[in-house]
Amino acid sequence: MSTHTSPAIELRGASKAFRTPSGALHTAVRDLDLTIGRGEFVAVVGPTGCGKSTTLTLVSGLEEPTEGEVLVAGEPVRGIGDKVGFVFQQDAVFPWRTVLSNVMAGPRFRGVPKTEARERAREWLARVGLSAFEDRYPHQLSGGQRKRVALAATFVNDPEILLMDEPFSALDVQTRALMSDELLELWSGTGASVVFVTHDLEESIALADKVVVMTAGPATVKEVFEIDLPRPRRVESVRLEPRFIEIYREIWASLGEEVRITRERSAADVA
Amino acid sequence: MSPETVAAPSAAVTKDPAGTDRARSRARAARNRSHLVHGSRVLLLVAVLGLWEWLARAGAVDPFHFSMPSRIWEQIRTWAVDGTAQGTLWEQIWYTLYEALLGWVIGVVAGVVLGIALGRIRFLADVLGPYIKVLNALPRIVLAPIFLIWFGLGPASKVASAVVLVFFPVFFNAFQGAREVDRNLVANSRILGARDRQVTFQVVIPSATSWIFTSLHVSFGFALIGAIVGEYIGATKGLGLLVAASQGTFNSAGVYAAMAILAVVALLAEGLLTFLEKRLFRWKPAEAGSDR
């Protein structure tokens, strides 16, 4: 029906305000219009603390918008849907479960029988290269390995929509590049739509089909840039291409202004 | 490239004996230190007991009031071999242990269940919170006489005092543990598809266990206190009764002997708990300096 023609994600005039502990009303997202097509990889960049992450929580159903509408596959979001996967910035693996058990968690929560869940988990562990580590506990892994567990645990649920909130920001630079390549590889087979929030412009251009620049908070869409770099891409080499640098310059002209505004504001707050 | 890779292992080989030598001497130093610590501990105990014995024999302290180690040992031996006025010593230990254990288990189960429930269900916490605070403010040991009136001289009244002493620390820790669950973990489990029940049982309870276990150590001590005080006030059997009976006959050695037996029982229970904890928390990184 209409679900086939409707875009994967649609935000229509969505706003979100929080009550701060001191009682004031803080608007994180204001009047947000954004459409993300099926199978599209969209990166959202903006100054730190502008409300990028809030956008993701609205799409995931973890939070409801105060105003406006959020649609996933043409249907308004009510609670947490089963089409959504979410990779968090901080470690969100269960420390008391082994690697295998962590990856099995999603299917088991959703009522998949144990043997089938184990099979699927093993398959995804193999794809992220952690087959030899399935009996380890998270504290025995490196930060990059834990992130791989989180990716496997998310992908094993076959999400149609993948929300990623600065997933690699806690990793060192080399590991980050490696993980970005792996993410592109994992994603390429799934046809999932991705919303990837980051403050790293280079990362966003290297990964995405579309880069959305947000304004300084309260966040709303400032500009959308199409990234016409060919796929498949290797993160390390694509950033040396002249076209990449051209795009970078173009987007930075837009993003830099917002970063400046944010910086001036926080300087004014301190003063 | 290749000369380096060849050179590196050979250098390592020549270095190796020195390395293991150093490791060996370091291990020896560590062993010596641990011998020194253990030896000093034993020495300290012997010195204190010896001083006590000597002072009592020399008449510097009155052995009738303060007793002395040899008499206490003699008392324990007599109880163990000939039995006490209330029956064999083992029966007294078993009674106290049974009351403490039963009270502890009931208190822990109630504390954990209510703590997790109130931690998860805000409405319950808001309604019951003030009452629990008031009950906690009460010095609960004064309930022991009431329990004696309610439940009589048998084990039930001691179990009840142990329960009220155990419940609160366990409850507060379980409650805190349920409240302080990493929000990211909860959000993640919800996204992965967990329902409320699954969040409670597979996220909240596992992450609260380390909080709960901290309280288990303390609370077993409380259970023993509850049982002993209950027996002391009125009982037909138990170590607390031994204390009371010894006190009644001005037998200070008896009081100390019962104390020593209690200490051993408490230490054994503590050891068992630590063992269980280690098995349960294999997923946790070893903390620096945690080997006690």
Automatic annotation (TrEMBL), chain A:
Stored SMART domains: AAA (SM00382)
InterPro entries assigned: AAA+_ATPase, ABC_transporter-like_ATP-bd, ABC_transporter-like_CS, ABC_transporter_ATP-bind, P-loop_NTPase
Keyword Nucleus: no
Protein's UniProt keywords contain ATP-binding: yes
Domain of life of the organism encoding this protein: Bacteria
Any one GO molecular-function label of the UniProt entry: ATP binding
Keyword annotations: ATP-binding, Nucleotide-binding, Transport
Limits of the ABC transporter domain: 9-241
PANTHER family for this protein: ALIPHATIC SULFONATES IMPORT ATP-BINDING PROTEIN SSUB (PTHR42788:SF13), TAURINE IMPORT ATP-BINDING PROTEIN-RELATED (PTHR42788)
Protein name (record): NitT/TauT family transport system ATP-binding protein
TrEMBL record, chain B:
Taxonomic superkingdom: Bacteria
Region annotation (Disordered) ranges: 1-21
Biological process, per Gene Ontology: transmembrane transport
UniProt KW Lipid metabolism keyword: no
Transmembrane portions of the chain: 36-55, 101-119, 131-153, 159-175, 211-233, 253-276
Matches recorded under InterPro entries: MetI-like (IPR000515), MetI-like_sf (IPR035906)
Name of one Pfam family that matches: BPD_transp_1
Membrane topology: Multi-pass membrane protein
CDD domains registered for this protein in UniProt: TM_PBP2
PANTHER family: ABC TRANSPORTER PERMEASE PROTEIN HI_0355-RELATED, ALKANE SULFONATE ABC TRANSPORTER-RELATED, MEMBRANE SUBUNIT
Protein name: NitT/TauT family transport system permease protein
Source species: Actinacidiphila glaucinigra
